Structures
1.
Amino acid sequence: MRVERFAILALLTLASSAALPDGVAGSVAKAPITPDGNVASAPTDLVIDLDTSLDPAFLGRALPAGCSVRVTLPGDFENTGLPAQDVFSENCAPGNFQCITGVFLQGWPQHPILPHFPPVPLGPATEYALTLDGSHTLVFTALMDLVVPNPNPAPGPGLKQIHPISGFVNPKRPGFYPVQVEFEAGAGCTAESGVANVHIVPKIRPSVQVTSVFNMGAPNTIYQQTTALNDVPYAWDFLLWDRRGGPMEGVTVEMVNPELALLKQGNRAVGNIRIHVPTGAEGQSVSGGPSVVILAPLKGVPTARLTVQFTAGSAPGRYTTTVKMQGGNALKMFVDVL
């Protein structure tokens, strides 16, 4: 399902005057592993969606050997002066990241196309190499054909997102900043290009993010299938941060009616879950909590893990569930009932 442009704007809480994304670039948002990746003067940690559906039923992009993807941040972003290195190389290990680095993703968190295969033991990059052109352009160059569907090291539909992880600091002034993407996909590495705006916000906001690390192989929990009145194969794991960027511990799920649940921290509602169901559906539900403090993937930032079980209703079709934090972001989960 291609995310419509107005839906993109809503998810990013963009003002109506903000420029729409175009070309190969889809949208840009805070990465799911940190509470402040898009906050003014905080370390940059963003995920760039390309112009492909994030639904794994649709293939992503391929990158021929020798061709590159270039991501250019505006000059308002501060280059920290660290060396550009492939992720998981020296100084680029999780919890360290004393480097400028980034990875390709296949459409959901913690499911990258890594530059190394096999990933352990780590050696020179075999899939793609990361370099820096000038001070603000990340260049990912394929060392072999990155094909769709992608077989290694984590099978998936191909390149759908780009995750600049570290090495920059966000602009001091909040606002909308254009991120340029050039993708050499055509014959002879002919480039397609596009620009999408990232909203740099003035302060941390409450946030809910999906994580995939608690299931072997980091499968896609955002899009799942099940049968009527049964649970989805994988529970939903969410990372919760409060408006100060701290772990939102002790959050539980409380059903109000068959299409609405509240996220509650003690007696206080901190968000809600709404289930959009096919006509005639009955018996659907969500349950879970309380959330517990953990360290988020890759960077080890303290957060809270909320595990939610979704049970499908009686009717076949797509169930779209929206999880929203009060004063914060919202995300959608999709279940197809066969």
2.
Amino acid sequence: MAKFGKQRFPAGYQSSVGMNGRETLHENSRELVSILKTNKILDSNSSIFELGSGPARNLYYIYNEFKTDKLYCSDLFLQSSYDNMDDKLKSVVTFYEGDSQDIIDTSVVKDLDLFLVSDHFMHLQYDKADYIIKKIISRWKPTYIMLREIKKEFETPNHPRLFHNYDQFLSDYEIIEENTSKQDNAYFIWLLKRK
């Protein structure tokens, strides 16, 4: 039976995806930053939120590149995430502890430039991811959205790594860059801009 949330990702999981995570994960983060840099959508005044960030490895690379301190993120375990987070980042990031659906309902960051979701939607149940996507579009309304998620043909429901209906973003957003991840061709990357 597929497990989700804290059953699938206990607090100890953060040590494998934080700053001491394997090099491939750091390459994933650098790839996302490279796309953001090429598209010139962020600067030192940009506000960024990452849903399901773990120890905010992606935000660490974004912070180093763009020098913005308007950084927000969420995950299930605050202390474990902080224990595996870069020390400089700890002093600038605002961290929301909780389930992604609860965060989406309660912690709206106003005037958000970028909403980032990387390797996270795939770990959520179909109905939960659908609910969150709809709320991002209707309530959060960021200027840009960046996704790095599993492709449909690589979905493994029992693992689980689930593919969701990302096309619903296209009602309010347009794709300005679409790639297959250089680290793993099972993943796509979308950079979306609000219409």
3.
Amino acid sequence: MPRRSNHIHRLKKHKYSTGNTIFFCTLPDCHYKIDSALALGKRSICNICSNEFIMSEYSLKLVRPHCNDCGKVKVKDHEGKDRFIKKITNQILTGVAADSTSSLRSRLDNVTGAADEEDI
């Protein structure tokens, strides 16, 4: 009788030359394998932060699946170019952006307010 494993797997995708894809566990002494389509909704360990998460349709597309809190997001920098930054860093940058926009707003109000007073 095969022995059942009592842990949550850290998965990685493997693609065979025939085009079939599977996920296999990368933890030591674990030989778990599952077809990619059958991994939807299964519990897994994030390959970035090591927290437990449930596999989604997005994570099935990744070679090393990670949770929704990890990964990167596309933003535009001050020059208008697209850049990818980590989502956790994005939370920090949101606070910095709010501070810089309020600073910019106050400077613009000062400039436009002074121009209105001179015209009268």
